Amino acid sequence: MGCCQTRCNRSRAAWQTACSTSPHRRRRATWPTAAANAEATMKPVHQMRRRLGRYLLPLAVLLSLLHPTTGAAMITTDQVFADPQVAQLANAAQDGDLGRLQQLIKAGARMKFVGREGMTVTHYALRARRHAPQVMELLLKAGADPVSMLSNGNNVPHYAVSRDNADPEVVKVLLAHGIGPNWFPPPSQRYQKMSLLQEAIMGRNLPVVKLLVERGADINYVHPISGSALHYALDGIDFYIPAYLVEAGIDLKLLDGTAPEITNPLARRQTAIEYFCETEGGRRGHDPLPEIAAGWRVFTAALAKRGVKMPCGL
């Protein structure tokens, strides 16, 4: 998962400890529990594993609606949708059956019907086995919801850009149906959402990153806890996305931890390069993986074109 996931967990910890305005949370931050003290002494990788356990179980429950789990029964569309016609629509969407989709649309299938955990047919369009852009286009033209918020706050646009091997053509369809390159979901219980660009970076989807920037995504948007797109991109694994951001003109002086609620005097604000050099720089020795070394050369060359020298090694 790399540094990006570590950064997300670091953000949650920073927010819970330094930013909460709840008197109870302030008290917990002032007098930490034994468990909190134990976690504070752990190595970062062990902290990450413990925190991941807290968040992955609820996520696994949601993902089971789309992906079968080994040893467990697959949740079928008729278990997700109480309306049998909508269940058929979802099946046709994930099968990429354009003819069947058109039949069900003409028959009046309810496009915006909401099933378990907030699922709608547009979620199934994202995993179409074939003709994915055409499937999404048919559903959205017929009135399906391009946002489709899940009960945990996740949504179709963010999943579309961040999933493994995200399809730029599907993203183009969403952009044509009201999801702008700087779209943010409605407010939720989460403190702040990442931008679409940052979500695409988290998924390491360079073609989608390029598409969003070309369509006008704010390359200098700063998440108030985790920082800029470059903070997310410098994960120590793929340096081609950081290189592209540098070439596209991202501001290299953008800082993380800019939320005004962060009052901890020990909190530090760092640029993406400073953060990388502190947490990742120089750890790959003199013989890194060839693909990582190749990306690093492209990244440092992009910096050199802007008169910037990387202050640390790979």
From TrEMBL:
Keywords: ANK repeat, Membrane, Repeat, Transmembrane, Transmembrane helix. ANK repeats lie at residues 117-145, 192-224. The keyword Transcription does not apply. Signal peptide: none annotated. It comes from the Bacteria. InterPro entries: Ankyrin_rpt, Ankyrin_rpt-contain_sf, Multifunctional_regulatory. Pfam families: Ank, Ank_2. The chain crosses the membrane at residues 55-75. This is Uncharacterized protein. It comes from Malikia spinosa.
